Amino acid sequence: MIHVLLAEDMHMVRGALVALLNLEVDIKVIAEVESGDEIVPTSVRMRPDVAVIDIDLPGIDGLTAAAELHQQMPECRTLILTSLGRPGNLRRALDAHVSGFILKDAPPAKLAQAIRSVRAGERVIDSHLALAAWDTGENPLTRREVEVLRLTANGAEAVEIAARLFLSVGTVRNYLTTILAKLNARNKVDAIRIARDAGWL
């Protein structure tokens, strides 16, 4: 029996997925959570074989939680389930040691098979997404630039970003200028849109 943790914040979707997965003779959902913050502590307590994680969760996002789960419980496989088919997200998922990445509009049988495959140690990636990622360029932003842009996207001003990242306000402004240039963006809002569309944030 494959024990599964399901992380999905939409109650109706989560309920439907639990019901569908529990119809499989070899799969049992032993835990369900609705925020990214709950994934690691619940997994440590319940010891699932596979964690099926929505990418866009409240609290810690799904990919960050997957990376933390890999550090604390490397034996637990992670399968990202998402409606956000952005190539950059696939790259982030691979960096987070995710075992599988499939889209939410996949048939239920495909999800069940993906769970079996990642449990067996295989890597499962949606073929359309893999091709899109192949065609998309690398993220031109450094890790610190992504951090600055993410804080900006969350509404933080340069002074607040400087305080949080232990930088000077001038350095933060320099980062923002560099980000605009690298993304060929008209302004901060445009830069955030470009980075989000590419899955870099």
Annotation keywords:
6-stranded parallel beta sheet, 201 residues, alpha/beta
Radius of gyration: 18 Å
Elements, N to C (H/E):
EHEHEHEHEHEHHHHH
Q: Calculate the terminal CA-CA distance, rounded to whole Å.
A: 36 Å
Helix content: 40-55%
Strand order of the largest sheet: 2-1-3-4-5-6
Individual helix count: 10
Give start-end ranges of low-pLDDT stretches: none
Shape: elongated
Mean pLDDT: 89
Query: Biggest sheet: strands, sense, closure?
Result: 6 strands, parallel
Q: Tell me the number of strands.
A: 6
Structural class: alpha/beta
Question: What fraction strand?
Answer: 5-15%
Structural account:
With 201 residues, the chain is an alpha/beta fold. It contains ten helices and six strands; from the N terminus they run E-H-E-H-E-H-E-H-E-H-E-H-H-H-H-H. A six-stranded parallel sheet has the order 2-1-3-4-5-6, sandwiched between helices. Strand 3, helix 3 and strand 4 form a beta-alpha-beta unit. Helix 7 packs across helix 10 and helix 8 crosses helix 9. The protein is elongated, with a radius of gyration of 18 Å.
